[in-house]
Amino acid sequence: METAIEKLKSLKIKVTRSRVELLKFLMDNKGHFTAEDIFKRLQDQYPNLNLASIYNNLNLFDEHGMIRRLYTHREKAVWDADAGAHAHFVCDVCGKIFDLELPQIPEKYYLKYSGSFKVSHEEIIFRGICNKCEKKENI
Amino acid sequence: METAIEKLKSLKIKVTRSRVELLKFLMDNKGHFTAEDIFKRLQDQYPNLNLASIYNNLNLFDEHGMIRRLYTHREKAVWDADAGAHAHFVCDVCGKIFDLELPQIPEKYYLKYSGSFKVSHEEIIFRGICNKCEKKENI
DNA sequence: ACCCTTATTTAGAATGATTATAATACGCGA
DNA sequence: TCGCGTATTATAATCATTCTAAATAAGGGT
Fold first, then answer.
1. Over the stretch A59-68, which tens digit does the pLDDT of each residue have?
2. CB of B117 closer than 8 Å to CB of A129
3. B99 and B44, same structural domain?
4. Is residue A79 part of a domain?
5. Within 10 A of B98 (CB to CB), how many other CB atoms are there?
6. Does the beta-carbon distance from A111 to B91 stay under 8 Å?
7. Which of A4, A56, A59, A77 could form a cystine bridge with A23, CB 3.0-4.6 A?
8. Last residue of a domain, which of A47, A70, A93?
9. What are the φ/ψ torsions at residue B135 (nearest 5 degrees)?
10. Do A49 and A107 fall within a single domain?
């Protein structure tokens, strides 16, 4: 499997320590993270790492389609280490994000935007309450 | 048609000037707005209006399902005066939001969340570039 | 392997949307 | 009309993210 360094080189992105640590983290921990999450979890192995670099490189990776910025939360940005097509469920109570598989839908049911837009990608978000929180609320 | 005041009363929401002006605005201008947008457009007719009240009441109306908070933009909240089911297209260049009709899809194609979640609502967002911006970029 | 150029990182400050606070004003039921 | 409780106001606080300027490091060319 492609290493973080190989991936950066293949995309002609300059290989720096920040980028390698960040990308390794994302490749090893497929999931949904804020910049702060990642920052905290990388500090042990790279104490000089700067939060601004995390932000810069998350944005950079997003522009390259390596990860995806999720617009799920009001107060902070969340990045999805898995840029593949899938939907999300967000719990209004605990805030957790769950991945959902997209069903295969025949083309005739596709939403049509009448040639007015060039769509680069699509987000589907369900909101509500997850099982765990629902149980807690019924105590 | 129901007036703003009638609507507030029917929902047992205390009728205040801020709320009436805000709700009137939203009923008269079905569209997508930031708190700041609305604030500026209401200042002529209500100079004492406070931005914090706009925020409070947008959140209140959202909780009552009268409007819908959109998670379309990174940097600021956008509210949709139309809480009915529809999708959105967001232009990455100009930031404009366009409404899209949702197609009717047979139930067998619905996304299944295996009973783990109680879904309250769904958001579908397409991103890309709109016709106008596309033309500008090709000059 | 060593410069040199340029992009990146760093630390800290700045920004800006949103929320919190505390005092005042207002809605509305009695 | 009175009085209670909630909403509004003005202002300050918060906090995620971006900006700035100086220091550092990557990597192409020699």
1. 999 999 999 9
2. yes
3. no
4. no
5. 15
6. no
7. A4
8. A70
9. -65, -45
10. no
